[in-house]
Design brief:
This protein has a five-stranded mixed β-sheet with strand order 1-5-7-9-10, with no helix packed on it. A three-stranded antiparallel β-sheet has the order 3-2-4, with no helix packed on it. Strands 6-8 form a two-stranded parallel ribbon. With about 130 residues, it is mostly beta strands. A hairpin with a 2-residue loop joins strand 2 and strand 3. The chain has one domain. About 10% of the residues lie in helices and about 30% in strands. The chain contains one helix and ten strands. This is Leucine-rich repeat domain-containing protein. Keywords: Leucine-rich repeat, Repeat. Pfam families: LRR_4.
Length: about 130
């Protein structure tokens, strides 16, 4: 799902050709060529992008300054670029193939934001009466 502030549609491009127009606020299934190496989303004021459960290997959302929520879990991402996403408040990128280096950069770039990386942390054991 893609959501824009002004409700206008976004365009989806592959190999220099427009392959779809995505209406803001709707769930749409778009067939992407199996040999697609790069998908470009053109739109202004994108606030939310949900591309969960696909086969994406790279996602470049750099410069989407109004993007607040990004769901890209359950893909095959090895790279994720959210550089310049100054409004980003929620990122769900669990169940991908992101390296420790990529995750470290995300943590460093956005230390006080809400992330769901799919990292399991040990919960402290409570002992005695508290």
């Amino acid at each position: 799902m893609l959501q824009q502030k002004n409700g206008s549609p976004c365009e989806l491009w592959n190999d220099g050709k427009k392959i779809a127009e995505l209406q803001s606020g709707t769930h749409q299934t778009v067939s992407i060529p199996s040999n697609a190496e790069e998908i470009i989303i053109k739109g202004y004021d994108i606030q939310k992008l949900d591309c969960n459960n696909n086969q994406l290997t790279a996602l470049n959302a750099s410069g989407c300054t109004r993007l607040q929520v990004l769901y890209c879990s359950r893909n095959k991402l090895t790279t994720l670029n959210v550089n310049g996403c100054t409004s980003l408040q929620w990122l769900d990128c669990n169940n991908n193939k992101l390296s420790a280096e990529v995750l470290k950069k995300l943590f460093e770039d956005f230390p006080e934001r809400k992330w769901n990386y799919g990292i399991k942390r040990e919960q402290p054991q409570k002992r005695g009466n508290i």
